[in-house]
Amino acid sequence: MPAGKPAQIPVVQSTPRPRVRPEWLTRLAALSIANALPTIFLVIGIPIGLTYALLLAPLQAPDESAHFFRAYSVSTGRCVPPVSDSIPESLHNLARRFTGGFDALRTIQFLDYWQPLTRHPYSAGTRLITINPAANINSCIGYAAAGAGVAAARALSQPALVLMYCGRIANLAFYLAFIYFALKIAPIGRAGLFCLALMPMAIHQGASLSSDSLSISSAFLYVAYVLYLAYGNRVTTIRVRQLLLLGALALFSSQCKLNPWLVLLTGLIPAARFGSRTRKAVVIGLVLVLILGAMLIWQHVDQPNARMLESTRTGRDIHMDRNLSFVRDHPLTYFRSLLYTCWVYGPFYTRSFVGQLGWLTIRLPDWLIAAYVALLALAACTGSRRLSRTERLVCFGTCLGTLISIFVLLFSMETTQAELSQMASGHLLWIQGVQGRYLIPIAPVFLVLLGSSRFRLRAPAWPLVCIAGVLLVNCIALPRVYASFYTPRAPLRNIAGLYSGGLWLQDPGGHEFAPDGAYGRCWFGGIPGDVPVTGDWSGDGKRKIGIYRKGLWILDWAGDCEVTSANRAFVFGGDKDDIPVVGDWTGDGRTKLGVYRRGLWILDTNGNGKLEPGVDPVMRFGEPGDIPVVGDWHNTGKAKIGVVHAGTWILDTNGDGKLDRQDERITLASQPGDTPVVGDWNATGTVKLGVVRDGSDWFLDWNGDYRLQEFRYGAKGYIPVVGPWRQPY
């Protein structure tokens, strides 16, 4: 080393040690969101489902009281119930306390829950004979889960309310388990299945006592298993145990809700996986025979309940055999009405498919319904598969066959002979009874078909969009459920309304007449000559609208001011001089029909909607040219009749239906041509009088002192109608 130079120390550069990522983080990064959907479904579905099960007021899912009685019967070991079943009185008391559409009657109070919980066990009291044919014709398989939950509560001698909640939670547990396994095995369409299973209507039914819980979840599991056998990478040859499981799932699903069209889905499985085309055809045939054989066996052992159902329908002038014969003999006429029904009821079917909760009284915003339908369409294109023409035909045939079968079945069970006669004469009538929730079990097949298009989404973030959409829609739906049952409401009063050419309007409170505004505006009726009527047709405490059309009554039974399958049609009256009148003639809470015919009152006191000479009372009260009025003049709970004769109100205050000296006579400051109206204008519980002039000037006896107070709402040509409506239509 040269002198004078310092020694240089070599620098050793060390390479940094790589950071070791924790094993759990490595697994999480490698985990696909789509593959995690089954676990995410449970994480989201359990709290949402429990919230629906506990938040929804007792027996407030569609027809839940009937499902409760059926589940109780199954819990006692009666798979085939007798026609006259024996149900504890406590269950009936619970059903009477929480009648269908309870949210329209009043707000639920603490005592509504406390009294059923603190009273005697379910078995206390007598047993009541119960005829429940609509639920009894269904197989007990669809009530196995709810029946198990009710049986567990019965073993502990719990009150009827606890029995109901245990049945709901048991249904929810099976629903979540079936959907979890469906998501686990489905090789395609997981995102769509995920969105369907957590859709408000689906999870709402899954958390209720309805047999829809098992019918939806078992159909989803069957569809997922068929897709697994058809497109799963782990399946090359279908083994015997897989065939047995396929048959068991098909049998179980069909017993929950009969749909033999689902057997067509086995056509998606390649023949090579069966071993040959012959074996594939044999398997499809055997599964179909299994399903139809089980159906025939059930119909044989359950004949008494089937006959009872037919008898109850016959009492409503519905003859199922004649209706089915009409479909067979006039297929084109029937399919014209089917297409017309789908066109008119499309919005209702969409709402009741995505979420019209409770007894179809809790509506979600229209924008949310549209957004969720769009989400389902996009989810169908996530993780989808391009299908061959044959495969698309199989899916299309399954969906179309199911749709037609539902409409034919409901047509046979809901169409009266009067409606059948009108249809035979060429009139287009809607098919009643169909709801969007009936289509949920077959919806996964439709999404697979929709996802087979060329448009497919491959972005890995789309499952996150599905998760966010599910959380959003349920975060909006659940508060609406709470508000419908538990939020205090202001007392109702009668309000002014108008009708013209099918357009219904109600006064928003400030008497601001805005025919193009959104408040209270809807369309119902509209044929020239239609006469508007309002009343509580179903007895749920909510006034609804309807029209009278030359003897034909079309009533908005559900109270949604829309043409839906829930509407009812009756034929009562029809004489050219008949004036429609409505009232609760018997005091049972239901508004019934009637006509005023040149001084004669013909009233449908039994509420069956049929004009029956010798049964319906005919009373003479008034003269030709008088204007009929109806009201509970002295708060007795029953509607009474009256007329306006030359400006004088003559009211049958004693309710004897006779014009005598005891009847009250009142003269108001009115003019010829004024239209009389009756209502409780200030919510005191007493009906009061009023007149409307030229469709716009309202003169109301606000305080019951026969002094009229005036305001302006409407325009010439409008017919006055009287509310209240709890929510604007």
What does this structure look like?
By secondary structure, this protein is α+β, with helices and mostly antiparallel strands. It folds into two domains: 32-483, no CATH class; 496-722, 5 Propeller (Tachylectin-2, Chain A). Helices cover 42% and strands 14% of the residues. The protein has 22 helices and 24 strands. The strands form seven sheets. It has a four-stranded antiparallel sheet, with no helix packed on it. Strands 8-9-10-11 form a four-stranded antiparallel sheet, with no helix packed on it. The protein has a four-stranded antiparallel sheet with strand order 12-13-14-15, with no helix packed on it. The longest helix is centred in the N-terminal third of the chain and has 26 residues, at 160-185. The radius of gyration is 31 Å and the shape is elongated. The N and C termini lie far apart (102 Å). The model is unreliable at 25-31 (pLDDT under 50).
Give a topology summary.
Layout: H1 23-30, H2 37-55, H3 64-75, E1 85-88, H4 89-97, H5 110-118, E2 127-130, H6 133-136, H7 144-155, H8 160-185, H9 190-197, H10 200-206, H11 212-231, H12 240-256, H13 271-274, H14 277-301, H15 303-315, H16 320-329, H17 331-354, E3 356-357, E4 362-363, H18 366-380, H19 389-414, H20 417-424, H21 443-450, H22 462-486, E5 496-500, E6 503-506, E7 522-523, E8 531-535, E9 544-549, E10 552-555, E11 568-571, E12 579-583, E13 592-597, E14 600-603, E15 618-620, E16 627-631, E17 640-645, E18 648-651, E19 664-667, E20 675-679, E21 688-693, E22 697-700, E23 709-712, E24 719-722
Antiparallel strand pairs: 1-2, 3-4, 5-6, 5-24, 6-7, 8-9, 9-10, 10-11, 12-13, 13-14, 14-15, 16-17, 17-18, 18-19, 20-21, 21-22, 22-23
Helix pairs in contact: 2-8, 2-22, 3-7, 7-8, 8-11, 9-18, 9-22, 10-11, 11-12, 12-14, 16-17, 16-19, 18-21, 18-22, 19-21
